[in-house]
Design a protein that fits this description.
The chain is an alpha/beta fold. 37% of the residues lie in helices and 18% in strands. The protein has nine helices and ten strands. An eight-stranded parallel sheet has the order 3-4-5-6-7-8-9-10. Strands 1-2 form a two-stranded antiparallel ribbon. α4 packs parallel to α5. It is globular. The two termini are 31 Å apart.
Length: 257
Amino acid sequence: MLIRPIPSTGEAMPVIGLGTWRAFDAGAGEAARRPLREVLRLLFDAGGRMIDSSPMYGRAEAVTGELLAEMEARMRAFLAAQLLRTEGIDLMQIHNLVDWRTHLATLRRMKEEGRVRYIGITHYTTGALPELARILASEPGIDFVQLGYSLATRAPESEVLPTAAARGVAVIANRPLERGDLFRRVRGRPLPDWAREFDGASWAQLFLKYLLGEPAVTCVIPATGDPEHMKDDLGAGFGKLPDARQRQQIRELWDGL
């Protein structure tokens, strides 16, 4: 899988990760757990590492932890969490900038003490993007920013992504497929032949490769509990990525639908 360096350390991060919101909010039965276990196996076998979860995702965080323990796969994962009080978290994030000044001071202490490796901030709304950019520009020591970014939500391109790149902050793109809304817009339409120029074999891969064609993006984390969807998503992390001309071609295609 393609990798990008985490700017603050140079540590290699595979470009396709996994979001667990909704998808891993599952019961204890084997029928519910089996596909989730397979999703994790596929992620690791493809070289992926990033898994994002939160106590605000229902049971998703607990289920993820239980499956990783069962699979003896904790060391293969890069765990990103949001205001957890759990040991062994790689990245601790302030969810939706809630009381961020207080929490950022706490996270800085935790990082200094070696209790977390990286710290970050998140928000999912476009209205919060100016504040995200302002915080990144003014607050030192932030390693990651997580935000909603997709072909349908391109607002991060105007300010936050350039600021993150200038400040050496890694970017995690969540909701890259807009909870499936992107697929509804292209339903029944054939994938354009020119997607092969950047090794795009499906609409999912075109959508994800568009984001990865932006150098400021470190990792995208589509959320899924479906192994077939995971296989498809992972394919976006291999082969060529669209260049500036091809990304413009993708934008024009999308805007013309």
